Amino acid sequence: RVTTRFSHLATSGAIVSLSVKTSAGYASLDQEALAMLRKAKSAATIPQALRGRVFALEVPVIFSLQDAGSG
Question: I need a labelling partner for 20 at 20 to 30 A (CA). Which of 4, 27, 47, 60 fits?
């Protein structure tokens, strides 16, 4: 489980900061969680009440790992 934190500038849609708050213990998973949020930004609609404001969110990302031969 990786917990990410980002601040978002609702006026322009830009992410002001993006970081890992709690690491999964694997750099590759932490980086993938950050990449996922960068990609999702373009598909997200900001609620009217938050437009024109800077706000911060914490988003948990849960990975399920399996051996290559299972599943």
Answer: 47
- With cut-offs at 50, 70 and 90, classify the pLDDT of residue 10: low
Please state, as a whole number, how many other Cβ atoms lie within 10 Å of the Cβ of residue 4.
19
| Three-class SS of the chain | CEEEEEEEECCCCEEEEEEEEECCCCHHHHHHHHHHHHHHHHHCCCCHHHCCCEEEEEEEECCCCCCCCCC
Strand order of the β-sheet with 54-61 is 14-22, 2-9, 54-61
The torsion angles phi and psi of 45, rounded to 5 degrees, stand at -105, 125
Q: Which of 12-16, 28-32, 65-69 has the lowest mean pLDDT?
A: 12-16
Burial of 8 (0-12, 13-18, 19+ CB in 10 A): buried
